[in-house]
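Design job #97: recover the sequence.
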């Protein structure tokens, strides 16, 4: 009896499986994209790193120290209420005293408000003298969120300033 055994299907190669091909294709795509990103990062470097970064930092420090030494030596304080709300008028006060603790008399005082996320909303207001060394401004913030504020007191040819970050709540 001569029986013929039917030909069985030999096992297919794993390389023909769509799953294996898909995984290999994903790995190749990731490697190619990473290679392109590395090339672009290297080829289009903005060159923002300074070779003399240490000396540059020291120069900034010397400038700050010299400005403090040249300054009038005033002690300044910004009094901003804790419950500042959007589109609600808020009274902000600024107090400045000299080294002896006596009220100082700057030539003029200006309140600046900067919106870190939108420079188009920045504004400034002159502060009104309430009493010797005490100034006030009615401020209305147009948007809720974080605002960087600065009060600049000008005297002669110089300027002393003090900054404060303010969180404005929704109405």
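Job complete. Output follows.
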């Amino acid at each position: 009896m001569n029986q013929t055994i039917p030909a069985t299907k030999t096992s297919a190669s794993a390389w023909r499986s769509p799953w294996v091909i898909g995984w290999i294709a994903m790995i190749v795509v990731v490697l190619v994209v990473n290679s392109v990103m590395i090339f672009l990062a290297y080829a289009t470097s903005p060159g923002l790193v300074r070779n003399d970064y240490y000396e540059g930092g020291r120069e900034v420090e010397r400038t700050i120290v010299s400005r403090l030494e040249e300054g009038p030596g005033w002690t300044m304080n910004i009094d901003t209420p804790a419950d500042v709300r959007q589109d609600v008028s808020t009274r902000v006060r600024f107090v400045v005293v000299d080294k002896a603790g006596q009220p100082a008399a700057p030539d003029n005082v200006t309140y600046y408000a900067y919106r870190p996320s939108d420079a188009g909303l920045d504004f400034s207001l002159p502060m009104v003298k309430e009493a010797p060394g005490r100034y006030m401004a009615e401020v209305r913030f147009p948007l809720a969120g974080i605002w960087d504020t600065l009060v600049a007191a000008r005297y002669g040819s110089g300027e002393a300033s003090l900054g404060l970050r303010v969180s404005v709540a929704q109405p």
